[in-house]
Amino acid sequence: MISLSSERELLVSSVADIADREFADRAFDWNGEAPWENVRRLAEQGFLGVNFPEKYGGGGMTELDAILVMEAVGRVCPDTAELLYNQQLVAPRAIELFGTDAAKERYLPPVLAGEDNVAIGISEPEAGSDVGAMGTHIEEDGSELVLNGEKTWVSHVEHSSAVLVWTKFPEDSARSSSSSTGTASRSNSTTRTWRVTTRHISSWRT
Known about the structure:
The protein is of the alpha+beta class and 206 residues long. The chain is 34% helix and 18% strand. The chain has six helices and six strands, in the order H-H-H-H-H-H-E-E-E-E-E-E. Strand 2 and strand 3 (144-152) form a beta hairpin. The radius of gyration is 18 Å and the shape is globular. The termini are far apart. Residues 172-206 have low confidence and may be disordered.
């Protein structure tokens, strides 16, 4: 069992208090709707993205602190905890770890303020979530990169200004990897399949 410091105990109790007072009434009653209002409330109190650098609006804490926040919320409202997981440990976190400075400055502050979301496109109609079998790929076109493929089950894309797309680079590329990522503007469609066809992402080179 992990012994928490007094600071972490205060973090957990503060988040739990908000969840008990403000999230309990609608917990387990969202019926597939995303509880964005709860996420915004946590952002207002400084509990969204606690594991991100302060310069982007985060709390400058650790992954453990982010997990403790999710756990405290999840004991009351699992739907809100699932959104916190997406916001703190999935697409935005990948941008913070691997993105360019321009991408971080563009996407992270609004996400950490609870005003935006970055979805993640991994699953495909034929490959499912098997990244080794995915068909979405990068082609080089002169000085630009072209992203081609099809993604499906992109959760919360209708609430997102961007999608982090998992793709493959050419086999002879030094960056060839089934876990390579990049951002692309979202489709206007809210259907379950999100198509990416010959979308230029030249800014990815920087």
